[in-house]
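> call design_seq(struct)
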């Protein structure tokens, strides 16, 4: 069985994306570690809230475009390249229109959000900058989704790594010249995705952007994206609700402590994304249930093995965190352990999630799952954070991840038995 798993194309392709993701995650981790040490918990907490707002907005206003792009380009690239290019071009046009709208509205309402929602007026300027940075996030995710759909996994890794490497080098240069602060660090974070998008364009087929009649595929594209968008919006809110609740209920210093724990476990969602890069086109291309199940079993064994290996990192946290972040972040250890267990649960759920979305074509399942997750995090998160602070926030995330695994699994098992 192990030989069969290791010999599959998926395992070999996953090696490229997972190794690339580990390197990319390490660069990203060093970036956040340096900012945490140099800025201190208070300013780092403001940075974390700004970044969380950026990713939330970018995920919401994407409206399922990335998922639709991967599904339709992957399913048409072999049989009808002209049609695949139309989906590619239409997706880019949608991204630009959305960015303009977000930038116009976001800059007006940023002071209100900072003062009335977060209760932190000092967030007004960072949030205004975030509205511009949403464009970089949208365009960069378009580039990586396009490379995923075209199954250019080495290029996908190269673009991600180079972007994060440049971001880290600029941070080090700012620190060396004594110019590193909250605003300068945030500007570096917001600017580099534009570089990554520009770099990726060199590896995408130029004829895709010259194709005509791209709106002829709009009906199929938006019909599929409707359910993906509904799921993404609810999932995006529920996935970051813990951060926003801590931002509202706790001090910026405590948000910085919690943010440090989040950054330490962030490599796991990146590995999840890397595995999904390979898995999504595969699930979308299967023509029968037997093919899908054979692939899923091997994929599931692989992620369980990765999760078991991940458990070995937990004992190291007691020693490593104070050294990495400094003694000011000693309270990060326990929230990190809880969040890490939550992320490993997330990793185990990847094969089932991908099969439901890309093979069965039922993204609407995750609309209801995400609604349940949202209420779970909202209710339990408020109670746990109010009583246990950052540890309560981590506990709410763990419970939410368990729900996100079990609910889709139940749907999948019922579907297979039918």
């Amino acid at each position: 069985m192990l030989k069969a798993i290791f010999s599959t194309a998926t395992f070999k392709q996953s090696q490229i994306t997972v190794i690339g993701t580990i390197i990319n995650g390490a660069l990203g981790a060093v970036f956040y570690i340096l900012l945490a040490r140099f800025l201190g918990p208070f300013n780092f907490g403001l940075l974390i809230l700004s970044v969380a707002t950026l990713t939330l907005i970018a995920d919401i206003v994407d409206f399922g475009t990335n998922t639709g792009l991967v599904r339709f380009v992957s399913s048409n690239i072999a049989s009808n390249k002209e049609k695949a290019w139309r989906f590619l071009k239409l997706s880019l046009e949608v991204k630009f229109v959305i960015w303009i709208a977000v930038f116009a509205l976001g800059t007006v309402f940023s002071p209100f959000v900072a003062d009335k929602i977060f209760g932190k007026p000092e967030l007004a300027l960072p949030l205004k900058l975030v509205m511009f940075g949403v464009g970089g996030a949208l365009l960069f995710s378009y580039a990586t989704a396009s490379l995923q759909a075209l199954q250019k996994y080495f290029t996908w890794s190269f673009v991600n790594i180079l972007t994060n490497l440049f971001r880290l080098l600029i941070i080090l240069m700012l620190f060396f010249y004594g110019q590193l602060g909250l605003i300068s660090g945030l500007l570096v974070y917001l600017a580099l995705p534009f570089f990554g998008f520009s770099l990726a364009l060199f590896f995408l087929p130029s004829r895709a952007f010259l194709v005509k009649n791209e709106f002829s595929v709009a009906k199929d594209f938006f019909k599929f994206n409707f359910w993906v968008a509904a799921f993404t919006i609810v999932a995006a809110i529920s996935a970051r609700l813990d951060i926003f609740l801590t931002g509202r209920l706790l001090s910026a210093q405590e948000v910085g402590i919690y943010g440090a724990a989040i950054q330490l476990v962030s490599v796991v969602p990146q590995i999840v994304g890397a595995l999904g890069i390979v898995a999504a086109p595969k699930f979308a291309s299967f023509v029968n249930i037997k093919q899908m199940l054979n692939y899923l079993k091997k994929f599931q064994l692989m992620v369980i093995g990765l999760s078991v290996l991940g458990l070995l990192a937990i004992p190291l946290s007691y020693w490593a965190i104070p050294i990495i972040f400094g003694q000011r972040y000693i309270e990060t250890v326990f929230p990190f352990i809880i969040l890490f267990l939550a992320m490993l649960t997330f990793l185990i759920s990847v094969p089932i999630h991908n099969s439901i979305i890309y093979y069965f074509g039922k993204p609407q399942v995750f609309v209801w799952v995400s609604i349940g997750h949202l209420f779970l995090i909202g209710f339990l998160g408020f109670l746990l954070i109010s009583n246990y602070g950052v540890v309560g926030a981590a506990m709410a995330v763990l419970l939410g991840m368990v729900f996100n695994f079990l609910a889709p699994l139940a749907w999948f098992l019922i579907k297979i038995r039918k």
